[in-house]
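Methods — Computational structure assignment.
A single polypeptide chain was analysed. Its primary sequence is given first, followed by the predicted tertiary structure written as C-alpha cells.
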Amino acid sequence: MENKNKYPGSLYSKKKSDKDLPSSKKASVNSIGKKQTNVLPEPNKIIDKKHIREIEKYIKNEKVLKEKISFYEKIFSTVGAIILIMNFDNYELLYINNADERILGYKYNKKDYSAQKLIDAHHPEDQNLLAEMKEFFKVNRNNTFSAIYSIKDSDGKYRWVMNTSRLFNKNHNNPEMNVISVIQDLTGNLSYDKNLKNISKEKFRKINAQQVGLISQRERQIVKLFANGFKSKEIAEKLDISFHTVNNHRKNILKKLNLKNLAALVNFAVENGLD
C-alpha cells in the first residue's frame, strides 16, 4: 500500500493540528465559541460600496484642493507685488512669492534670510519700520498698516515701495503675530499716473489740515495770491489794503505754518491746494 505521507503537502499528507501551525495561522475562538482564522477576508468583503464612495469623494476633494492651491500659487506668482507672510515675534519668514526677484533683483529664501538682512535692505531712515509695525499690531489687531518707504535692490539703488499689511491670524487667544504684507513697487513706470499729483495733494492736505486751520480766511486769500505769482504791492492793490498790512500778514502766515520764506509758502500752498 502506498505511503500517504510520502508526498508532504499533498492530499495524502497527514492533516496538521492547531498545535503544529505557527502562531499567526492558529485558529482563534470568539466569544460565541466558534473558530475563526486570522486570515484577512476577501477584498470585496472589506471595501463595500459605501467605502468606495467615500474614497472617491476623498480623491475628488484632494484633486480640487490641489487645483485651488495651484491656482492661487499662479496668482501670487503673476501679480506685480511682493506677497509675504512673516512671524513678527521672531521675524521668521513663513512665505514669499517670487516677485521679490523681479522687483528687487534678488530672491529671499528661508536658508539665507535673516531679520537683520531685511532691516539692512531698508533705507537708513526707514530701518525702524518693522518695529513700528509690530507695535502697531499689538494694539490694532483688526486694522491695516500702510507705509511708503524705500528698499535697496540688487544694484544698490533704493526703490520706493508701498506696504499694506494685516494680521494673518486675528485670534486674540493665539499668541503668534503672523502678518501678511503686499509690497507694491512705486519706482517703476506707472501705466496710468495722471492722478499721482492729485493723490499727493490730497494726502498732503490731510497731513497738513491742522496747520492750514491755523490761518484765517483773509490770510488764505493772501497765500493764494502769492502762490499765483502776485507781489506784495499787487496784493495790496487787489485787496484794497496797505502794503504794510500785506507784509504783516505774510510774516504771521510764515510763523503759523512754521515756514522760513515766501518760496516755502508757495510750495506749501501748491501741496495743500491753497493755490
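Note: The first strand starts at residue 28 and ends at 29.
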